[in-house]
Design a protein that fits this description.
- The chain is α/β, with parallel strands linked by helices and 254 residues long.
- The protein has a domain of 133 residues: P-loop containing nucleotide triphosphate hydrolases (Rossmann fold, 3-Layer(aba) Sandwich).
- The chain is 39% helix and 28% strand.
- Strand 9, helix 6 and strand 10 form a beta-alpha-beta unit.
């Protein structure tokens, strides 16, 4: 029996005294990409942040495992160093910090070596060409003045250069027009091809990004619990009928 890449066991989470996740069981194996769908307020982004160790949230019951190790109490920086990556729904602006300087620090910590600025610039130039990003991008301040599409492409740029074992994409498709979605999706699929053992969790409301990045599993999260799982056909059903049947099911459950 192989060890799962990432696993949550009976995960209960609260914030500010409010229960948000209520017994989430999820297993992601190497090479699998899981789509997590659900209405607003279901707990999808909370799960993403808890997986990355956000101290805003309290795990009141259950555990999180990564590559067989209990990381429930591990801080975020150690999770990132081990190979976990989260693409934020709303990436923060950091005035005064250039993209190239940020990436030099992040890549050096991930690889546990001191990379030179020259090495980082070369790596950035190659990946930016693939993502249709101008070279001047690397000398801009992190996310300052970036359009929505630029912020999301920068997240995919980080993912490509940090070579994570587990990728968590929190609504990467939100706010993207058709062309930007295609560029971002192409960047993710290229990464999947180059890193076939990497697993992923894609958090989304809609089917459209999943048409580009076909998940191996689809889950429906409602009121802090996964109440349905299946393949891509489940995403197609949700796209057609919405979440109402799942909301109704949760309302009548004990």
């Amino acid at each position: 029996m192989t060890t799962p890449l990432c696993e949550t066991r009976d995960l209960w989470v609260s914030a500010n005294g409010k229960e948000i996740l209520r017994g989430v069981d999820l297993i992601v194996d190497k090479g699998e990409w899981h789509a997590l769908m659900g209405p607003n307020g279901a707990g999808k982004s909370t799960l993403a942040k808890v997986l990355m160790g956000d101290p805003t949230y309290t795990v009141t019951r259950g555990k999180v495992f990564f590559e067989g190790e209990d990381i429930t109490r591990l801080p975020s920086n150690d999770r990132a160093r081990r190979g976990m990556f989260l693409s934020f729904q709303h990436p923060e602006q950091i005035p005064g910090v250039k993209v190239v300087n940020f990436m030099q620090i992040a890549m050096s910590h991930r690889q546990n070596i001191d990379l030179s600025m020259f090495e980082v610039r070369l790596a950035l130039m190659e990946k930016m060409r693939e993502l249709n990003i101008d070279n001047s991008f690397m000398d801009r301040h992190l996310n300052v003045g970036f359009s929505g599409g630029e912020r999301k492409r920068h997240e995919i740029l980080q993912m490509s250069l940090l070579s994570p074992h587990l990728v968590i994409l929190d609504e990467t498709d939100s706010g993207l027009d058709v062309d930007a979605l295609r560029v971002v999706s192409d960047g993710i699929t290229a990464f999947q091809k180059d890193s076939p053992q990497t697993g992923g969790i894609i958090i989304t409301h809609y089917k459209r990004i999943l048409q580009h990045i076909r998940p191996t599993h689809v889950h429906v999260l409602v009121e802090g619990r996964i109440i349905a799982s299946g393949g891509f056909e489940l995403a197609a059903q949700i796209d057609t009928h919405g979440f109402e049947r799942y909301l109704a099911s949760e309302r009548v459950s004990p």
